[in-house]
Automatic annotation (TrEMBL):
Domain of life per record: Eukaryota
UniProt protein name: Replication factor A C-terminal domain-containing protein
InterPro entries for the chain: NA-bd_OB-fold, Rep_factor-A_C
Pfam families to which the protein is assigned, alphabetical: Rep_fac-A_C
Amino acid sequence: MQSFYVEGKISFLDDEEQTFYELMCPKCKNIVRTKIIKGIDCGNCQKHTMLTPRCHFQVQMTDGSGSTTATLLGELGENFFSMRAEQIYDIINIKKDPLPLQCTQQDLANKVFKIQLRNSYCRNSDDALAKLFVSSCVKKHDALQLPTSLVSLDVGESSK
């Protein structure tokens, strides 16, 4: 896996199918393709357990060279909404309401971030396209907190 930094803006994808969470086995972190929290016999670790939500959504990152899509997971994603994954699950699945994205989107619109990305290549895919995951993200004026030992690339370069 390769890591690199970009500086740019972040926005939510205009995707009505994005659920903003996924359910997983809390013991082995295996993702289960269902939308309802329930007890399961995990096919990966063979344990009986209750599924746990984890924040999971895609964003668009834009800099002077172009734009690309990346995935935010777990606590990093929760920080964007100032909500835990359980709250996101509750709003979407129990209350059947949409997430309040407008306030967060407006808050993101005027900010530039220093974003650490990592490539993850699909093992089962015929194409060699990498998926990008956000490893860390800080407002640019806070960017001095990040280590500087990794290579920095433009967003447009990372999608080539």
